[in-house]
Design a protein that fits this description.
single chain; 203 residues; alpha+beta; two-stranded antiparallel sheet; two-stranded antiparallel ribbon; 6 helices
């Protein structure tokens, strides 16, 4: 399974596609990352023999959210469709709205934008709690990201202005950050933040 894990990460990148935030464990480390039976083996024993059903998932997605849940059923027992993220060609986009700083934390709304059916996105979020985790991660990373971008902007410009910094953030989001790069942690979130700040009236 270690070789399978190494090959899988080499093909698909080391960022977990379920959250698009956290990395898998290093494929050549002493301990490999979590494998998940996407269709749980108790409910779907035959699927446990299918390697496409045995997939790497970051520890947080696997142990804190997915568990051994039956992803093809709602809590009331009705059946539902579910996303297999390793088969997706397009990355989700994240849209931030109404960001304000209140009581020592950032408060904002998050929309997950995708061409996929909205019900599929909702089903996915109900298991992996993506929106709340995005809010937590952005709040945690906001200061360090902005300090670094302010440093980069000030280093390359003799005249420093708010409007100039906003243009700089938009340029970074559109031309520097590669949201399809599955080797760099949380780049999808960083892109979304800079797009929001670059287009907002208050920064």
């Amino acid at each position: 399974t270690k070789r399978f894990y190494q090959d899988f990460i080499a093909r698909n990148g080391n960022i977990c596609p379920f959250c698009s935030i956290l990395p898998h464990k290093h494929p050549f480390g002493k301990k490999r990352g979590d494998f998940d039976h996407y269709l749980d083996k108790d409910t779907y024993p035959m699927a446990s023999l299918n390697l496409d059903n045995l997939i790497p998932m970051c520890s947080e997605c696997n142990q804190d959210y997915k568990h051994t849940d039956n992803i093809l059923k709602n809590e009331d027992g009705t059946r539902r469709k579910f996303i297999y993220p390793y088969s997706l060609e397009e990355v989700f986009r994240i849209e931030i709205e109404g960001m304000v700083f209140e009581e020592d934390e950032w408060i904002f709304n998050v929309n997950i934008i995708s061409d996929i059916d909205l019900m599929l996105v909702s089903n996915f979020d109900s298991v992996f709690n993506i929106k709340d985790r995005i809010k937590r991660e952005l709040g945690k990373r906001y200061d360090s990201w902005l300090v670094e971008e302010v440093r980069r902007y000030a280093t390359g410009n003799t005249e420093v202005t708010i409007d100039g910094f906003k243009v700089f953030l938009l340029n970074t989001a559109n031309n520097v950050i590669d949201v399809t790069n599955r080797t760099l942690e949380a780049k999808l979130l960083e892109h979304s933040l800079y797009m929001y700040l670059g287009n907002t009236h208050d920064i």
